[in-house]
């Protein structure tokens, strides 16, 4: 989450339910054709703020994120735990951010104590659009962006914290998106990821682990997966390499809780990629899951 390198493609999910009627059947009085589509919410991310509706309905929701900023952004849905207010969340967040220099990543545990991770479109490059389908319970949420600025300060410390109220789901639940495959997010591995080709592809993600997990997709630019892992495991404080980073965000899905389901919409071009999870593990000294094996290189032809 901290090194935030995820993104998301765009996509349209349309599903129609048409009753099968025999050719000779009499038309019924009102043959209502249910055109059930997933309700959509449009978000904009800028440097450093979100624009969103103040309130949306819960249930299956297609989230479209437009990045109008100059930096990469994502929209992590965080549901505030029972009786936690937005002000209390903000106070907890500030204390966690201030404690990182002395406590390290473990300081993030303070945030884990007051929120529930509910997914969202992962890091989207400047000028691009990301998309994900989330299944939202009613409650008070905040949208946040953990992506770092050029000096490593996470965007949520610079204003990217946006309250959002989620009301009850509509009475009729739309059908789930049609998917290419279901990917399991485990402690600490991705399983079931299919062979990928170019173009828009929807994947169903299920968190089968005991900690929150995410599926970030990173495109490698002229480096191998092994070299990418080396870059990620370099100790902080080293000399910054010159030139642009040899990788970029390419889609995915933000962190969600154990037992939850979400849908990532990827839109990939040919190249080398890796799936990655940066969620810190409370059971493992808050090491990011990628350091515990949650990494999966793949090729798009
Ligand atoms: Cu994980």
Condensed summary:
The chain has 301 residues and is mostly beta strands. It is built from three helices and 19 strands. It has one domain (40-233, 245-300): Immunoglobulin-like, CATH 2.60.40.420.
3D structure, described in words:
This protein is mainly β. It has 3 helices and 19 strands. The chain has a single domain (40-233, 245-300), classed as Immunoglobulin-like (Sandwich), CATH 2.60.40. It has an 8-stranded mixed beta sheet, with no helix packed on it. The protein starts with 39 loop residues before the first strand and ends with a strand. The model is unreliable at 1-32 (pLDDT under 50). It binds copper (II) ion (CU). Copper (II) ion binds next to loops.
Name the beta content range. 35-45%
Small-molecule binders: copper (II) ion
- Which consecutive residue ranges, at least 5 long each, have pLDDT under 50? 1-32
Radius of gyration: 20 Å
How are the strands of the largest sheet arranged?
2-1-4-7-15-12-10-11
State the secondary-structure class.
mainly beta
The proportion of residues forming helix, as a percent range, comes to: 10-25%
How many domains would you count in the coordinates?
A: 1
Q: How many angstroms separate the termini?
A: 28 Å
Tally the helices: 3
CATH superfamily: Cupredoxins -  blue copper proteins
Number of strands: 19
Q: Please outline the major beta sheet.
A: 8 strands, mixed
Shape: globular
Global mean pLDDT: 86
Reading off the top of the CATH hierarchy, the class is best stated as Mainly Beta
**Could you state the order of secondary-structure elements as H and E?**
EEEEEHHEEEEEEEEHEEEEEE
């Amino acid at each position: 989450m901290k090194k935030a390198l995820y993104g998301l493609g765009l996509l349209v999910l349309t599903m129609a339910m048409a009753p099968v009627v025999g050719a000779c059947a009499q038309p019924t009085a009102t043959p209502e054709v249910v055109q059930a589509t997933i309700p959509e919410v449009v978000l904009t991310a800028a440097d450093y703020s979100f624009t969103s509706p103040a309130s949306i309905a819960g249930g299956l929701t297609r989230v479209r994120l437009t990045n109008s900023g100059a930096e990469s952004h994502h929209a992590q849905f965080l549901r505030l735990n029972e009786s936690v207010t937005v002000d209390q969340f903000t106070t907890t967040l500030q204390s966690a951010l201030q404690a990182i220099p002395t406590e390290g990543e473990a300081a993030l545990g303070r945030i884990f104590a007051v929120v529930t991770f509910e997914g969202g479109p992962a890091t989207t490059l400047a000028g691009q659009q990301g998309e994900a389908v989330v299944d939202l319970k009613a409650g008070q949420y905040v949208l946040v962006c953990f992506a770092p600025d050029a000096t490593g300060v996470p965007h949520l410390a610079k204003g990217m914290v946006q309250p959002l109220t989620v009301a009850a789901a509509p009475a009729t639940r739309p059908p789930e998106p049609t998917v290419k495959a279901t990917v399991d997010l485990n402690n600490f591995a991705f399983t079931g990821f299919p062979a990928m080709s170019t173009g828009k592809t929807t994947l169903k993600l299920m968190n089968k682990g005991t900690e929150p997990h995410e599926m970030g997709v990173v495109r490698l630019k002229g480096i191998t997966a092994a070299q990418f892992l080396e870059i990620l495991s370099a100790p902080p404080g080293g000399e910054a390499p010159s030139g642009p980073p040899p990788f970029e965000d390419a889609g995915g899905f933000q962190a969600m809780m154990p037992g939850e389901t979400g849908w990532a919409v990827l839109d990939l071009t040919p190249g080398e990629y890796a799936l990655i999870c940066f969620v810190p593990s409370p059971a493992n000294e808050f090491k990011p899951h990628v350091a515990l094996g949650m990494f999966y290189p793949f090729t798009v032809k």
